[in-house]
Amino acid sequence: MTQPTANRRECLITAALELAATGVPVLPLRAGKLPFGNCPVCAGSACGDRPHMVRAGACACPAPCHGWAAATTDTAVLTSRPWARTWREAQAVAYHPGGAGLTVVDLDNAAAVAWAGEHLPATRAVMTTRGEHWIYLGAMQSSNAVRPGVDIKSTMSYARWLGPGTGTMAPLPDIVRVLTTRAPATVRPAALTVPAPAGGGTCPHRTPAYLNRGIAMAEQRITEACEAVHATVYRAFLAVLSTHGRCGCLTDAHMAQLFTAAQAKGESARHCTDAWTNALTRLGL
To answer: Exposed, middle or buried: residue 234 (CB in 10 Å: 0-12, 13-18, 19+)?
Structure first.
């Protein structure tokens, strides 16, 4: 290891440990600002680095795998033997904004920065190679290309650490949240359409028996899973949301029922939240 390489490695590890100490989950990046794949399935971005395929703890590899799910505040993990290779090859440090309760508005060019200056409240800004990162207090759904040159990085995403920036972080404003809101499709898939009963009447989704039966079936599906539990949980959540996610039938109590069933099968609260969020994203909700 050459001296410059050794110095870079120490600088990256120091920065990672300092961030972790403040409660910001961090991870190393390889060349091209890409995450390390810590198992054969994810090595060399074989999984496509796609959020819906990234599950914290889903791989039986010797290190967390991978992308934003590998981000951690555990200094013992960051300095552990399995991570030695990644730090030797690392080119940068990244962090999981959503895991720290933050949202990064990634402004990729001068035009995007000018737009933000006119429409978004001032907050902490970090200079990037082509534009700026505006960081707000509060987490939300991540989304790319919400407008020209603007990406949202928060939950299920990572951002490169480029320094603390300048300015005071402001609370996440509604104007940023609505950037990820999609306009309703003119034509929805038939399976996701909830037709009104002929001649009026009550939406069947608001009939307790109909909704409760759907929740019970999802719970049973999760409870009877003997393998691929996380995938089963995701599919059960997707089925419930595809039927009831657009008509306002679901309540926090229903969500709690499903989460309880999943956790009884060994799923963590974070896994449940990830699966629910992924299902919402899949359906455009």
So the answer is: buried
Q: What's the mean pLDDT in 30-36?
A: 81
Q: Is 0.70 topped by the overall pTM?
A: no
Distances (CA, A) of 271 to 38, 98, 233, 260: 19, 14, 9, 12
DSSP-derived secondary structure letter, 74 = -
Q: Which residue has the higher pLDDT, 201 or 171?
A: 171
Beta strands in the chain (DSSP E): 26-30, 34-35, 92-95, 102-107, 124-127, 132-137, 143-147, 150-153, 159-160, 170-171
DSSP 103-142: EEEEE-SHHHHHHHHHHS---EEEE-SSSEEEEEES--B-
Residue 72 to residue 38: CA distance in whole angstroms: 14
Question: Quick one: tokens of 274?
Answer: 């990830």
Burial of 255 (0-12, 13-18, 19+ CB in 10 A): middle
CB of 172 within 8 A of CB of 204? Answer: no
- Long-range CB pairs of 38-47, under 8 A, 24+ apart, other chains included: 38/62, 38/63, 38/64, 38/65, 38/66, 38/70, 38/82, 38/86, 39/65, 39/66, 41/65, 42/66
Strand partners, 103: 136
Q: At what angle do helices 229-244 and 252-264 cross, to 10 degrees?
A: 160
pLDDT, mean over the chain: 78
Distance between CA atoms of residues 128 and 114, nearest Å: 15
Give every CB contact of residue 84 below 8 A, 6+ residues apart in sequence: none
The CA distance from 70 to 6, in Å, is 23
Q: Look at residues 198, 168, 192 and name the one whose alpha carbon lies nearest to residue 240.
A: 192
The token duo for 235 is 């599919």
β strands within 131-255, DSSP E: 132-137, 143-147, 150-153, 159-160, 170-171
Question: What average pLDDT does the segment 48-77 reach?
Answer: 63
